[in-house]
Amino acid sequence: MIHSPLSLQRSSPFSAGLVNASILLYTVWLLLPAAQTTFGALGGVLCVGLFALGVLLDGAYCKRYWADFLLRAACAAALPLIFWFFLQRGGGQFFGYYCQQGMFWFPLFFCAYARNRGDKRLWRFWNITLLACFCITTLTTIGWLIQGMLRGGRVYAYSRSLGSGEAGQAYLEELMLRNIGGYDFVYASTLALPFTCYGVRAHGGWARAGLLCLCGAQVLMIALSQYTYALLFALAVLALELVAAFARFLALRVFHRPLRVLPSYLWALLPFGLVYLLRVPLISLGISLFQSVGFTNFAYSLSQLLNVMTGHAVDAGTRLEFYRLPIEGIAQSPWVGSLAGGPLLLSKHSDLLDLLSGVGILGAVLTFGLMGCIGRGSLRGLRSHAAMPTLLLQWVLLLGCALLGTVTYSRDISLLLCAGAFFLLENPSPEVV
After folding, report:
1. What confidence category does residue 2 fall into, taking pLDDT thresholds of 50, 70 and 90?
2. pLDDT at position 290, please?
3. Which of 201, 253, 271, 282 is buried most deeply by CB count within 10 Å?
């Protein structure tokens, strides 16, 4: 065990059971569309409530660390206000948005409490529950997307079913009704790829074979969803992992010296420089390829990206055009953003750019500080852990998703990142960083 549990008496079985039930039910409710549509938002509220009750019944913890827990809760309560007032998130529905944000930060709360407590009863069966739910939703999503292609509808930016479409609707409209839920799971799957690849490296036999199948299913689902940035990120991760694995193999077989994972990642970045030099012909090739197989959404998005790289104008209404607004806001007031009295220049398509435009560099530092306060202690032992390169890669992907999308709406991403870090740090492998 990497962390040092709190020097407290064990929590009661009832308290530990409530906390354990909260994260298990939350995982099932969030990742299985049927459970989410059946129980609605009340399912998530119930899970968060069970966690809060379990912590309150942990008398020894509350007696000694009540001020620390209240500080974390205050930070979680303040973050939605920043996003609501300065980034115009929430779509005008304050109460619903505030509840959604409570559910968004819940996994980070849980991980910090569980790692600080160090009681394995708090996360019993969580790893197998998470893996099972992820596999089920990945496979059912693939089925939905293939069904859509067979029905002749244009499959566009969709991950999974969150209910039945209304009779008589075109398939595209049917899918777009559930676009936010689909966005969540697609990008969560992209961020799960480093986690899956780590499992392939750390296991052997049937476990490795199963994880390889899961990796293939995740990439297939991302491709079928036609989320352009998600596919580009996924392909970049796979390319990095393959080149890094080849570098480690070469170092061991040719030079008879083992190469650690982090240095192998750095060596694997060299071919990416060549890809950047050949970006224009490669993107042109990708456009032709996707058009030939009927993935018109990919082809269109890549054509807009090619326009940016070649100095041509992009079409109005595209994401690349939306990003210009917050960039202008950042240029006008980089330190405090619109707090200086300027207009709110937001894209509503980039959490990171909108944050910098809305509250500036100083406000962004404060926001990240509030996030760090909530999860303080959950990453203890990271520097010396074999999972450090994997987690660094996940955070780079998270940065890319926040730059090009709206991460803070996605509870799937929050759960995946927190759970991945939790299990990697709780289960050290013999692999050397």
Report:
1. very low
2. 87
3. 201
Report pTM.
0.89
Q: Annotate the chain with three-state secondary structure.
A: CCCCCCCCCCCCHHHHHHHHHHHHHHHHHHHCHHHHHHHHHHHHHHHHHHHHHHHHCCHHHHHHHHHHHHHHHHHHHHHHHHHHHHCCCCCCCHHHHHHHHHHHHHHHHHHHHHHHHCCHHHHCCHHHHHHHHHHHHHHHHHHHHHHHHHCCCCCCCCCCCCCCCCCCCCHHHHHHCCHHHHHHHHHHHHHHHHHHHHHHHHCCHHHHHHHHHHHHHHHHHHHHHCCHHHHHHHHHHHHHHHHHHHHHHHHHHCCCCCCCHHHHHHHHCHHHHHHHHCHHHHHHHHHHHHHHCCCHHHHHHHHHHHHHHCCCCCCCCCHHHHCHHHHHHHHHCCCCHHHHCCCCCCCCCCHHHHHHHHHHHHHHHHHHHHHHHHCCCCCCCCCCCCCHHHHHHHHHHHHHHHHHCCHHHCHHHHHHHHHHHHHHHHCCCCCCC
Least confident stretch, 40-44, 55-59, 238-242, 415-419? 40-44
- In sequence order, the 6+-apart residues with CB closer than 8 A to the CB of 292 are none
Q: Is the pLDDT of residue 41 over 50?
A: yes
**49-to-46, 103, 233, 342, 380 alpha-carbon distances in Å:** 5, 10, 35, 40, 26
77, pLDDT greater than 50: yes
Q: Residue 159 has what pLDDT?
A: 38
Alpha-carbon distance values, 141 to 51, 174, 182, 216, 228 (Å): 30, 15, 9, 14, 17
